[in-house]
Amino acid sequence: MTRLALLPLVPALLAAVANAAELTIQPKPFCTEQSFPATALPAEVSLIRLDAKAWPEFAITHLAAHGTTVAAGDLLVKFDAEDIDRKLTDARRALDTSELTLAQTELELKNLTETIPLKLGTLGRAARNAKEENQYFTQTRRKAEAEQAAHALKRAQETLENQQEELKQLTKMYAADDLTEETEEIILVRQRDAVAHAEFALRMETLDHDRTLAISLPREAETLATTERETALSLAKAEAELPRQLKLQKLQLEAAKTGLARDKEALADLEADRKLFEIKAPAAGWFYHGPIEDGRWTTGDLLKTLMVGGKAPVKRAFATFIPATAKLGLLAFVDESTARSLAPELKGNATLSGREDLDIPVKLTKLASAPGPDGRYRANFDVTWPSGITMPPGATAELAFSSYEKAAAIVVPTKALAFTPAGWTVEIKLADGKTERRPVKRGRVAKDNSEILTGLEAGQVILTP
Known about the structure:
Number of strands: 22
Strand order of the largest sheet: 2-12-15-14-13-16
Shape: rod-shaped
Strand content: 25-35%
Structural class: alpha+beta
Radius of gyration: 60 Å
Number of helices: 6
């Protein structure tokens, strides 16, 4: 900046110096104090939540009041169990059905395992026999039966011829006599009957012969060939189908076992969930609506449904049980500046609104090394509660600490400090009445005052705005 550019600032600086107050530096006590609210919370709590495995809905029929002091066994929450009891009945019936289905499937598998070889054997023998019968008929029996029919026809023809010849000879022989005797007549009659019978037999044999060759043998050939094909097809079908039936039955058995296991699991889950429909106090203590987790008591929209007729959430805490034996401490969430000022084992006091007369010693026992999602640090404090005071969980107190103390410190008003490229500086009045800006090293800051570690001495005069 040029000299000409600085000229307009000179009157303003001179005016500031003229209006500045003089302060003579004298050592005096200096301390930094911190105060912030804290909540009385127990180190030991039992979160109440519905870790249901299967049941999705829990309608509240009874809910102990918030902050209730309870004894062991007192009913805290009860839910409407009508629907789940019906579901349990259905689940037990389904389990019985699955057990019967499994037993029947096992029996059918055993039966198939034993009967399939028998069926295949029977069908195999039938196919083999049909093939052999057809082959024998085609190769041997058909020709033999045709020959037999021809032979029978020929024999009938020969028999007729013989009977006719014999009748002819008898007639010729008896014709030589002038007188035919009665016996001779009887013999001729019998021979004529024999000829007639032979003629009839020949006609019948001719019919049989013709039917055998034209109908019976071709029909039997067709039947035997069809039987051979049908038994072969039945065997082939059975050889492909029966093993598949056996495999399907095994799969059905596995499915039945899986179904039974799932039904058992479903019933077990429902029975476990049924136990959640009444929640009782495990010991004497307090019952609070809303969860107390990680030092925070949260309710939010939960309280809108946490009532008789409402529904409790599943898989998340909705209430808290605090044992009467639980020791209450104080817990606070402080900003980053306050967290830096808190030393391990730091001691201080707690003040209860309305009972400011009570002296309640507190000691820092734990301070988070990193901030939470909200940017604040969790701090736990041990408390010595005065006798005769019963602090309910969730009550608040104001904590006060002196985090830094020095009996004789060089202290200046913070507004007297200015930060320059050379660091922190103050305006000092010199012996000749002039002033100069002198660099200093700043220490702790308490409200409107700052500790000066180096750069100033007792008796020096500084200017403050």
